[in-house]
Specification:
By secondary structure, the chain is α+β, with helices and mostly antiparallel strands. It folds into two domains: 3-112, 2-Layer Sandwich (D-amino Acid Aminotransferase, Chain A, domain 1); 127-272, D-amino Acid Aminotransferase, subunit A, domain 2 (D-amino Acid Aminotransferase, Chain A, domain 2, Alpha-Beta Barrel), CATH 3.20.10.10. It has seven helices and 13 strands. The protein has helices at 23-27, 45-58, 68-73, 149-161, 205-213, 224-228, 251-272, and strands at residues 3-6, 9-12, 30-38, 82-91, 104-112, 127-135, 165-170, 175-178, 182-186, 192-194, 218-219, 232-237, 241-244. The strands form three sheets. Strands 2-1-5-4-3 form a five-stranded antiparallel beta sheet, covered by helices on one side. Strands 11-10-9-12-13 form a five-stranded mixed beta sheet.
């Protein structure tokens, strides 16, 4: 895609439109969404809009003014393909740490996306645990912030180590999420768990949709002992859906359990589209 949408106006993406006063560049003062778009449908859209509105309120950046569906469709050609949409919201320029405006600018980008949200990968992802990063729970830890250095460095370690994914700990040493999504695991009693937002994980839209479809999933902190006894586990991601992790002694049974929750989740999403 050669076009971007900046504040409702489309530009060639090669055209420089951001200057050094941009607060995302200077202070990481913003947040973003990555949206799965396929043939005119965005299955998780209602969850994205809810998180956008909540993030604007938490960051005191005003209220949502635009028809985002209209703004997204300005970029999408009529060719029926699957796209990765990124929406970035940045506090309007002005001030140093203390801002001078409670308003935002927005940027929308679109690129062709190859993975399907609906298909459960047959691949089991190997992973490691990042020891150099600790996530701290506060009023802003649930936001998908443009200041993403902890995730950059965790992903960089995974790249060096040859891992498919990397898990992060919070300040208490407990596992709280992966670099690309939230984590879920099945305990020895066949109960699914995911960390609560108070553990410093991002409030993922895929996570929210799973909890809505599966209200019996428990939101509990995960220590390393719990994780070591997991029978199955996966990462939830708004672009790739459920990604199985390499845990448990019976890989076939682990995949079967993840496939069950994937089927329930897909059915719930289909009913909501």
């Amino acid at each position: 895609m050669n076009t971007i949408n900046w504040n409702g106006i489309c530009y060639d993406k090669a055209k420089p439109i951001l200057d050094i006063s941009n607060r995302a560049f200077r202070y990481g003062d913003g947040f973003f969404e990555t949206v799965y778009y396929s043939k005119g449908i965005m299955p998780l859209w209602s969850f994205h809009v809810s998180r956008i509105e909540s993030s604007l309120q938490i960051l005191d950046m005003g209220s949502l003014q635009e028809d985002l569906l209209l703004e997204i469709n300005k970029l999408i050609p009529k060719i029926a393909k699957t796209y990765r949409i990124r929406l970035t919201f940045v506090r309007r320029a002005g001030g140093f740490y203390a801002p001078t405006q409670q308003a935002y600018d927005f940027l929308i980008e679109a690129s062709v996306h190859e993975d399907s949200l609906w298909e459960l990968s047959t691949k089991t992802y190997n992973f490691g645990i990042c020891e150099g990063v600790r996530l701290v729970a506060d009023n802003y830890s649930g936001l998908k912030r443009t200041a993403a250095l902890p995730y950059v460095m965790a992903a960089h370690q995974a790249q060096r180590e040859g891992w498919d994914e990397v898990l992060l700990r919070n300040s208490e040493g407990r596992l709280c999420e992966a670099s690309r999504g939230n984590i879920f695991y099945l305990d020895k009693n066949n109960t699914w768990h995911t960390p609560p937002l108070s553990e410093a994980c991002v409030a993922g839209v895929c996570r929210a949709s799973i909890l809505q479809a599966m209200p019996n999933v428990l939101q509990t902190p995960i220590d390393t002992t719990d994780w070591a006894e997991a029978k199955a586990a996966f990462v939830s991601n708004a672009l790739r859906g459920l990604q199985p992790l390499d845990v448990g002694s019976d890989k076939n049974e682990a995949y079967k359990q993840i496939k069950k929750i994937h089927s329930i989740w897909c059915k719930a999403l289909t009913n909501n589209v």
